[in-house]
Amino acid sequence: MQQTNPLQHQVIxxxxxxxxxxxxxxxxxxxxxxEIQDYLSQHFYELNAHTPQDYRTYEHIRVLCQDKxxxxxxxxxxxx
Length: 80
Hints:
two-stranded antiparallel ribbon; 2 strands; 48% helix
């Protein structure tokens, strides 16, 4: 995985996207916060399925999402 240095590259502020009101596209209601939450939950689960020894890292990222973005990402623990 490629790492970026936040001092050399501009980092996208996702907090404003999670605080937006729902969008209405014709008759469809789109909640960006819910979309981000679902995407991160699925992504963390898949990462944990591939490398279960890194569960502490994914749990740390989940807590950061809750703290910084106010997004409730599901726990990435696999069923026993």
